[in-house]
Amino acid sequence: MALVLAIISILLFNLKKRKQIAVAVKEGCNDWIRPMASLCIIIGFGSVVKNTRGFEACVALLLNPSRNVYASAALSTAVVSGITASASGGIQIACSTFANTWLQSANPAILNRICSIASCSLDSLPHSGRIHSTFEICKVDLKQGYKYVFVVSVIIRAVVTVIAVILGNMGIC
User: Fold this and answer.
1) What is the pTM of this model?
2) Is residue 127 part of a domain?
3) pLDDT computed for residue 82 by the predictor
4) What long-range pairs does 135-138 form, CB within 8 A, spacing at least 24?
């Protein structure tokens, strides 16, 4: 309701600039068409990937009980987030798939922290809708901008995930 009132007040206080407002709204809508289309395509891709045999094989491989539970949780969550290109989707799928196994030998609070950190490491690979939308809005192509995103979003977060797993095994995290 507050947003509607703010829009109405802007329109009322700027009646003389009505044409400029219309042009700004039109340009804003035109600038969002390509990023939204890209985002929809990438989300569709993630939905298809989740229903493939390869994804099921990946899940079976990740559900290896011989590994350290925190390392397994971090790796599984990161890989699923990478496959789906979504941190929240990765956590949801990984936890719904593996939670019963993990919770048998892990502290739920530590597991939550590790999964939350790990989910943000591989979710920003080049097929991520968020990355494409950001680059579309900034008018930067993937080749120009992704190397910076990779360092900040993938490498640094992967290092932090490893640190969290080490601390989790020490009972500190």
Assistant:
1) 0.68
2) yes
3) 87
4) 136/34, 136/35, 136/38, 137/31, 137/35
